[in-house]
Amino acid sequence: MDAPNLIGYSFMLKDSFGTSLLALGAALAYLTVWMIIRPRQSAHYFLLVYALLVLFKLIFYLCYYPLSITQPASWLHYSFQEIFMLSEWICFYFIIQRLLKSSRLQRIHYRLFLLVIMVSLLVLLLKENSIRGAGIFSVMIAAFQQLACVLYFIDRIYSTETTSLRKDPGFWMIAGIFMHSSGFIPAMLAFEILSDNLQRFRPAGDPILFTLYILLFLSFLKSLLCSRKQKNYLYS
Amino acid sequence: MFKEAEELFVFLMINTAAMLLFSVLFIGLVHIFRERQSGYLKHVQALECRHRKVGLRIQSAIREQTMQLLSSELHDNIGLSLSLARMQLAELEKKIAGVKKELSGEIKQTSKLIGSAISDLTYLSRSLSPAFIGSMGLIAAIRFELEKISTLGRYKISFVTSGELRFLDDDRELSIFRMIQELLHNCIKYAEASELSLALKYQPEELQIFICDNGKGIRGLKASVAPGGHGSGILSIRKRAQMLLGRCDIISAAGQGTRVHLFIPYKSE
């Protein structure tokens, strides 16, 4: 299958109920609005990098999909996924560090970041089967992301600011990532459990994954719109 | 474990929906808690603000009461004593008019001095009296104060008003007058100026007051108005302006004079 047909096929997937197209649409809408608003806060720059990484992962997944129908999932796909997950985590670290106001929570988050990097490198180096371990690796990163999100929520709870959370761009960024990783964990665990029959079962899980991406990009979009209303909102 | 893709789909849907529901609930709880906390904080801030305003109002009322007392004391006691002394001197002058002519001139001189002291005392008593200032109105009170300063003969004074004249309530006018009085006295005490100008601009929403001098300026203005700095007069003026929901801007540098801009809105709430 040549490249244009391959991409075309991916977008017309019947099994995903059009969610793949919607996910891409949400991502493109976010990027377009970013270009229009051009927020100046550093957290938004890191969020853009994060969103681009997620988008590339999504495109890679969509392009890879037709190939994986005829061939079993290869180590290339999973290595790519692991690299992206790790890059996402690094990017996510910078976003949260900029959003946290409490220096104590920033220190805790920094230690968590180092721990994840070390554990990730150990997992990547020690796992024997590169295909089977990828799901677990993704789940681990998603779980740590949730922990970091909880740190952010704790920071907001103890904050003395009187602005509403709904008007806080940071809240929407983290809410999106938190919901995305919450839904991502059971899906990836199921894939991991059924990795031997993945080709057969994958079409069932794809709409869920794409829906999670839609939610993620929509919350990013909302954070952009919040920062447009609140131009004086400054991140540390 | 799962026979069909549909079964897995349902399983995944249930799990993901449960996790999503959990995360939405968690975020919702954080949001509700934060909103309540924010409401409470806003309430506390409003209370603090009101408390501060009441404190400043009480402070101002006590100050005015003290000034009224001082004014009465000056007028009723010291003024009266001086008037009596002047009358006695006049009597004495009559008695010795035919006997010791050389003393008569000296008595006249002393009587003149006492007269001048009575006049100064009357000025002082009036400028301290809130009731007198209230009855005069702001512009007349400022003119009265400037006349008093002009008697020193050290300053070239200019006073202009522009815009449609608006009458404020007595308390606000008194506060504004006290601020101007404090600024003028500061100018006399520290500025070493030769020119003094005062302008009142009645704008549609606020009264703008500009007081400028060509004196030596304020060295280290930021440090002097910082907490613990020696510029307590400036801080007090700023507090009074804030109490009137206005603001006070001071522009000054060493050797370049001082410009004070007061912006006082007409609305009191």
Written description of the protein model:
The complex is a heterodimer of chains A (236) and B (269). Chain A is built from eight helices and no strands. Chain A has helices at residues 3-11, 19-37, 42-70, 75-99, 103-126, 132-158, 169-193, 198-229. The longest helix of chain A has 32 residues, at 198-229. With 269 residues, chain B is of the alpha+beta class. Helices cover 67% and strands 14% of the residues of chain B. In chain B, a hairpin with a 5-residue loop joins β4 and β5. In chain B, α1 (5-96) runs antiparallel to α2 (101-128). The chains are: A mainly alpha (236), B alpha+beta (269). At the A-B interface, α6, α7 and α8 of A face α1 of B.
Write the layout of secondary structure elements.
The complex is a heterodimer of chains A (236) and B (269).
Chain A: H1 3-11, H2 19-37, H3 42-70, H4 75-99, H5 103-126, H6 132-158, H7 169-193, H8 198-229
Chain B: H1 5-96, H2 101-128, H3 130-136, H4 138-150, E1 156-163, H5 170-191, E2 195-202, E3 206-213, H6 221-225, H7 232-243, E4 247-252, E5 258-265
Parallel strand pairs in B: 1-2
Antiparallel strand pairs in B: 2-3, 3-5, 4-5
Helix pairs in contact in B: 1-2, 4-5, 5-7
Supply the key terms.
heterodimer, A: 236 residues, mainly alpha, 81% helix, 0% strand, disordered N terminus, B: 269 residues, alpha+beta, 5-stranded mixed beta sheet, 67% helix
Largest sheet data of chain B: 5 strands, mixed
Q: For the largest interface in this structure, which chains are involved and how many residues does each contribute?
A: A-B, 31 and 29 residues
Shape of chain A: globular
* Share in β-strands of chain A: under 5%
Number of helices of chain A: 8
Q: From N to C, what is the helix and strand string of chain A?
A: HHHHHHHH
What kind of sheet is the major sheet of chain A? none
Strand order of the largest sheet of chain B: 1-2-3-5-4
Oligomer: heterodimer
N- to C-terminal separation of chain B?
72 Å
Portion in helices of chain A: over 70%
Low-confidence stretches of chain A: 1-12, 231-236
Distance between the termini of chain A: 49 Å
Q: Mean pLDDT of chain B, rounded to whole units?
A: 83
